[in-house]
Design a protein that fits this description.
Radius of gyration: 16 Å
Number of strands: 15
Shape: globular
Largest sheet: 7 strands, antiparallel
Oligomer: single chain
Strand content: over 45%
Distance between the termini: 41 Å
Length: 167
């Protein structure tokens, strides 16, 4: 499914009165007149699972995960933004039974790993300048000031392993 089709699917899933779908994004205002945006890059799809990251102009971002046709999980992203958005979603993708999300707030980046079968979550705080390389079933995280990786996360069907490299 291409990004345009995914964006249209998310548009149908969002509960709003006056939303707009154009230019590769969905925009709408909540009841407090704060703008929400879902960008095409902030949507992931795997089998029957759909996930998207909703940016909010006052920093009240949401992550939504549609497990099946009857169930959507909503998580208020835990950010420290002092009332405005700091960067939103850097990465959202599925790997094995995991939803992988990296988002940015004023203190750094956070890597979130959600097991979509058990619905448990692991959060790993990253340096604000950390560089992320995601390739098939492995994430490699490194500080941008170093050529060496700080750690990697390898995904397996029901678990993941984190390997920290010596400095």
């Amino acid at each position: 499914m291409d990004k345009k089709q995914l964006l249209e699917w998310v548009y149908e899933e969002i509960d709003f009165k006056d939303g707009e779908l154009k230019d590769g994004k969905i925009t709408w205002k909540n009841i407090f007149e704060a703008e929400h945006v879902v960008y095409a890059k902030d949507i992931a799809y795997q089998d029957d699972k759909l996930a998207w990251y909703e940016n909010n102009e006052v920093g009240l971002d949401l992550l939504k995960l549609k497990i099946n046709k009857n169930f959507v999980l909503e998580w208020k992203v835990q950010t420290n933004t002092m009332g405005f958005s700091y960067g939103g979603c850097q990465l959202i993708d599925f790997c094995e039974n995991y939803l992988i999300v990296i988002y940015i707030d004023k203190h750094g980046k956070t890597l979130v790993l959600i097991n979509t079968d058990r619905l448990d979550m692991t959060r790993i705080h990253l340096n604000r300048y950390a560089l992320v390389d995601f390739n098939r079933d492995k994430l490699v995280i490194k500080n941008n000031k170093s050529e060496d990786a700080d750690f990697s996360v390898k995904f397996h069907s029901q678990t993941f392993t984190k390997e920290t490299f010596n400095k």
